[in-house]
Amino acid sequence: MTESTHSNGTKWGSRILCGLVLMLLPGRVFGLGFRIPNQDAEAIARGNAFAATADNPSAIYYNPAGITQLPGQNLQVGDLNYFGINTHYQAAGGGSTDTKFEVIPVPQIYYVFSPTNLPVPLSFGLGVYAPFGLGVDWPQDSGFRSIAIESRIQYITANPVVAWKVLPSLSIAAGPTLNYSELKFTRGLTSATDMFRYNATDFGVGFNAGILWQPLKQLSFGANYRSAMTMDYSGIAHYNSTMGGANAKVEASVPYPQIASGGVSYRPTTNWNVEVDVDWSDWSTLKTVTLKGTGQIFGADLPLQLNWHQSWFYEVGATRYFGDGWSVSAGYFYSSDTAPSRYYDPAIPDTALHVGSLGVSHKGEHWTWAVAGQIITGPARNITDSQPNPFTNESANGKYQLFVPTLTVSVGYRF
To answer: Could you tell me if 333 and 314 are in contact, meaning their C-beta atoms sit under 8 angstroms apart?
Structure first.
């Protein structure tokens, strides 16, 4: 892609998303690593085991083929709130610190239209959500300020989809993902007082697709695929030290993974729905991110070594349906780690996680709503062999433990 083409793509992509971003983009976004798998209260309550159920407008994210189950027009808005985000660090030589307290909202909006006057049964949808994100803020006396202080990734996707009910029991869907992202991070480099800051943006296009098959009333299968995509961030880097300051235009290519998920839903009676899903993220493409242009400041471009590997979610959830549209759900999922200990970076505090959830929902003739609570935690991850900063000898060695409670509310209306 030429620089001119890339610039035009960024300009038009930014215009397309501008209004939606201004309405929905939170001041800060937090994710588990880069992923934000939580996109709907009803699905979250089921441990995000929703690919084979996908029966509300958030199916645009979980499995877009599921929107063929929604007659008429359906609008749904939701808000995921991370309360008291905390990563606790216990230094190998004693002492401890925590990331700064934050309460961060992550909103979503979905719209689905299934017209009845078409020659083939098609459904159309549009979702705006944040599938990735990052927000970490360490105090400067952490013991590793020359490795990490603050890191932010804001990432918003506008996702139109078209779904086709090929057979009464089989639906397929696909659509583009129009993605806008902003990257920010701050760290020291060579001393206890210097500061390096980088702020950059980019726009990119990918796609997602899904399939939903229900061969029996009691059994359904669903699968969803999200394409890989690279954000070619471009922005300005600032460096300040006791020797003075310098600026440079810097570019950084960050590959985002292809993601595949699939599951099976079993409904032994009309009162129960039990689902098991598996979700795979191919983070193995994220190796070394080179900050191209920092050579103007330091004499050589700075490399950020990550060397991540593939990661998995294992999800299970159940819903008990009662009369008058009421239901209660519970779920659990396990998230494996993605970063090898040798290249562990506190800017992206990565660890295996156990996530439990509980929720309640109600579906009326027109209005629907759901509320879900969630606890995200896991065993402490002990890092003993991380590479030290050669200038300061600071390293990421120590124990890291994450604890995050969340609350999500979704409200929908059927026209």
So the answer is: yes
Of 191, 189, 226, 190, nearest in space to 206 by CA? 226
Neighbours of 61 (CB within 10 A): 27
Domains of the chain: 3-414 (2.40.160.60)
H or E element, residue 383: strand 381-383
Q: Percentage helix, strand, coil, to 5, in the chain?
A: 10, 55, 35
pLDDT tens across the length of the chain (415 residues): 444 444 444 444 444 344 443 344 443 434 445 789 999 999 999 999 999 999 999 999 999 999 999 999 999 999 887 766 678 999 987 889 988 776 677 889 999 999 999 999 999 999 999 999 888 889 999 999 999 999 989 999 999 999 999 999 999 999 999 999 999 999 999 888 999 999 999 999 999 999 999 999 999 999 999 999 999 999 999 999 888 889 999 999 999 999 999 999 999 999 999 999 999 999 999 999 999 999 999 999 999 999 999 999 999 999 999 989 999 999 999 999 999 999 999 998 888 999 999 999 999 999 999 999 999 998 999 999 999 999 999 999 999 998 888 899 999 999 9
Burial 263-281 (b: 16+ CB within 10 A, else e): bbbebeeeeebbbbbbbeb
pTM: 0.90
Residue type, 271: N
- Rounded to 5 degrees, what angle do the CA atoms 153, 107, 66 make? 105
70, 114 contact by CB (below 8 A): yes
Query: What burial class does residue 9 get, using C-beta atoms within 10 Å of its C-beta: 0-12 exposed, 13-18 middle, 19+ buried?
Result: middle
Backbone angles phi, psi at 56, to 5 degrees: -135, 175
